[in-house]
Amino acid sequence: MIAAFEGWNDAGDAATSAVEQLSLTWDAVPLGELDPEGYYDFQVSRPTVKLVDGVTRTIEWPTTRMSVCRLPQAACDVILVHGIEPNFRWKAFCAELLQVVTDHNVTTVISLGALLADVPHTRPVQVTGSAHDEATAERLGLTRSTYEGPTGISGVFQDLCVQAGIPAVSFWASVPHYVSQAPSPKATLALLHRVEEILDVEVPLGALPEQATEWEAEVSQIAAEDEEITEYIRSLEEREEADEPPLEPASGESIAAEFERYLRRRGPRPDGRR
């Protein structure tokens, strides 16, 4: 099972975009969905009205949907989970997903996520992760996270799987906080590479590599128009080159504070502005 959830767990839509790419390239077929009634605040995640054949109106409710991919070249099938982080009853929500895991004899659960961090867009995407045991982490070459603090539905679901004896791993791509708008194809691509490694199955990437290259070039062009942003990115690059420890999720307050500290270190411009 490969799962990704919109919201807190999905900076730049990188994780859910990875699941969408897998669904398209692996010809996924619907498997089921969770009843959203007890899990979502519909004033936050509103249902949408759609037209069918330009005449009939239908309501599409926000929920968590599952699909299955039959991969001839793989030793097992893959269940994809594309969800929205629930507003209520997280334990019951994860218990329902765990029942799907049990019913379909899932042997491994892979959670994908993305976080905002103080990283430069010009460098390879940092992918941190965690596993159910040290041996698995070492085998997958995971950069172990030491993060302690608030977690999202991905973390809760992974913990429940481990408690139930289901091997579960997670991969988190770092998205530059100064370019957090979706899409983030470079981060999506990094997550898909980790999926390839753990499944030992080629993932058709389509136009993603070209999109990632274009995204980086566009961000660089925009950043070049602002001297302060350019110098800030350079400082992030220098910090990465110094081989500092992996970065943890950045809150809005910490991002703002870090940028303000950087500007103070630079001092006033020659024209007197800061």
From TrEMBL:
Top-level taxon in the UniProt lineage: Bacteria
Name of the molecule in the record: PAC2 family protein
Coiled coil ranges: none
Gene3D superfamilies in the cross-refs: PAC-like subunit
